[in-house]
Amino acid sequence: MVVGECWPTMDLLRSEPMQLVQLIIPAESAYRTISYLGDLGLFQFKDLNAEKSPFQRTYAVQMKRCGEMARKLRFFREKITKAGLSPSTRSAGSVDLDFHNLEVKLGELEAELIEINANDEKLQRTFNELLEYKLVLQKAGEFFTSAQSRAAAQQRELEGRHNGEGSIDSPLLLEQEMITDPSKQVKLGYVSGLVPREKAMAFERILFRATRGNVFLKQSVVDHPVTDPVSGEKVEKNVFVVFYSGERAKTKILKICDAFGANRYPFMEDLGKQFQTITEVSGRLSELKTTIDVGMVHRSNLLQTIGCQIEQWSLLVKKEKSIYHTLNMLSVDVTKQCLVAEGWCPVFATNQIQNTLQRATNDSNSQIGAIFQVLRTKELPPTYFRTNKFTSAFQEIVDAYGNQKDKISSSYCRIAKYQEANPGVFTIVTFPFLFAVMFGDWGHGICLLLATLYFIIREKKFSSQKLGDIVEMTFGGRYVIMMMALFSIYTGLIYNEFFSVPFELFGPSAYGCRDTSCRDASTIGLIKVRDTYPFGVDPKWHGSRSELPYLNSLKMKMSILLGVAQMNLGIILSYFNAKFFGNDINILHQFVPQMIFLNSLFGYLSLLIIVKWCTGSQADLYHVMIYMFLSPTDDLGENQLFVGQKFLQIVLLLLALVAVPWMLFPKPFLLKKQHEERHQGQSYAPLDSSDPFEMEQHIPHNNEEFEFSEVFVHQLIHTIEFVLGAVSNTASYLRLWALRADRNNLVTGDFSLAHSELSSVFYDKVLLLAWGFNNVVILIIGIIVFVFATVGVLLIMETLSAFLHALRLHWVEFQNKFYEGDGYKFSPFSFALFSEDDE
């Protein structure tokens, strides 16, 4: 959490000293006081009305008004987004509106926008209905015109036959009578409209069944989708005309049309009336189009005006809502003239808070000033580290570990206990260094550095933009990635690898060929011809016969040394924690036996590694460590590295065996004795203690029951975990070697394909292979494949893999030695911490 100045003076090893404060604020200056404290952002309020529901609190009405204003702003935002506009991030001038005037203005704008939307919806529906009506007039007119043409032709044909000679094909007398006498012809009714095309077949089938085939349906496909007046969506439709006889058939047809969502429109047979109606409909469509366009322009202008100020309005509403929400956490004095607040603040902020209270009193013209007094409490204070943009990302790596919910933010995290040693201080160096041990390649490190420098140089621009999830995560950890890149360049120079290619950067190699041709250099071996290569791995080792045995041995032993060193650091930090909190039991019966046990075994192994490197001995360290347990009294023979090694091994083995019961038994019995003494009144704390939290840090309170069985089981679990973890944690550090091991196979378990080998494969099998074809096209393709493989696999996937392994080494192997992480985060009331999703 970045609060305060960009680069504050800080002590990250211990959290800031906190104090519980009570504020007695006059009612007339309460609002302004809370507002000024929100601007300061260094006071965390406690809810003194936790037993009350939100509706029983003092400022429930104001909270309801703020909620209604937030709803109106969400409504505006939805309409702006739907219109294809975007809220302006630029300030359109200072907002001079107060809370009441803004509430009135938002109400007026909402009413105006709702009215515009209603009118627009009504006009748009009328426009769509007229469009459909025009289509019906055109398509149905074609039906009747073609039918009348066919009827006239048929009439002429019948009249010609009637005037000619009679034949067997002449119509019957009844048919002749019906044709010649129009009064005896059957009069058919009709219904016209549009039906969705996907329902047209079912519509026709239901009509036929419902009327028993006593209808005639004519349909015509509309070429383009039509906007439905009811739903407002584009729908493909057919124009239909249903001919029927009788009122019962008409009733059935109308019900079926309603069931299928068919829009019906009137139609007249007279061609003159048809043309007149089409002309009138076209005229109304033109008028409606003009009216709708004018309304859309007015609506767009209104939304643009709202969009220019909606961010400022949203911020003002958020501030008002947060102020009244905080005021609801305060208790009202009996006289109802003062409000009482309690909360945590850093000790260094005392003067700033007092000055803020005085300024609020003066600006409110209050006759009585607010009272600031420090309360004494044994309650666990929140944890607050003053971080900056560089250290905040490393602190978040530490805080992200755990499965407990933060009491304030409800997010899953494990925050350091109040003033316990903070792993974030050491993580700034150890995390990128362990990452670089696995990732080390100064070519890849330079690529990673250039990418993160882009984010750092343009951080002001990116910080004001809304980024995607992945880009935002990368931008937030830009300084972590920068440190990882710098350490990768350093370890890459030690490994002497630039995209897996060695260079003689610090002078010529110390080794030469046995013959002048050097044809057998990789099979027969090299001889030392000059002084040792001054820095890092000699470039001649790469590609030689001894490369794999040498580098694997070197990196495996180096991983063990780094792991034992970091685990020792964790145990040493547990000593400083115990000393800081005055817990002598943890020092004598936890720190001391843990140091003895770890260093009797793995500290001794580290010593053997260093001695072997310094003496050039050929001793088998596996054999030494195994038979240290199986046969501690046997002679070491050729595996002896120094005089007295056998005696030292026996002593260390006995110390390791003694350390286990030392960790297990004394602490539970001493805690029980301490608890009994407290109940007998033999343990007191001074009343004038400078820090009340230091009293009874590790002793159960008087009202707490002491369950010896639970304490003993907990200590048993802790002892077993440490003893087994000392072995498994040391083995876990071998991932540093596994991710750097120069092997040609996949590593199973927690490990992945070696970074160095992957880089070598891409270089040899892609780039050099493409170069050997002497073809420009193949070379270009090879370069493209090499670049994408390097970026996609080595710079992204392998970076993520090494990052996760380094994360695990810090969370599990390092932090579990001393980090309790049962605190909760200091979450002050601050306007600067508002996010876009806060309401």
TrEMBL record:
Q: How does it sit in the membrane?
A: Multi-pass membrane protein
Cross-referenced Pfam families: V_ATPase_I (PF01496)
Q: What is its main location?
A: membrane
List keywords of the entry alphabetically. Coiled coil, Hydrogen ion transport, Ion transport, Membrane, Transmembrane, Transmembrane helix, Transport
Cellular location(s):
Membrane
Residues folding into a coiled coil are 99-126
Which positions, given as ranges, span the membrane? Answer: 433-457, 478-495, 558-576, 596-613, 647-665, 766-797
Q: Which InterPro entries match?
A: V-ATPase_116kDa_su, V-type_ATPase_116kDa_su_euka
Q: Which PANTHER family match?
A: V-TYPE PROTON ATPASE SUBUNIT A, VACUOLAR PROTON ATPASES
Q: Which family does it belong to?
A: Belongs to the V-ATPase 116 kDa subunit family.
Q: What does this protein do?
A: Essential component of the vacuolar proton pump (V-ATPase), a multimeric enzyme that catalyzes the translocation of protons across the membranes. Required for assembly and activity of the V-ATPase.
Can you name this protein?
Answer: V-type proton ATPase subunit a
Q: Which organism is it from?
A: Xanthoceras sorbifolium
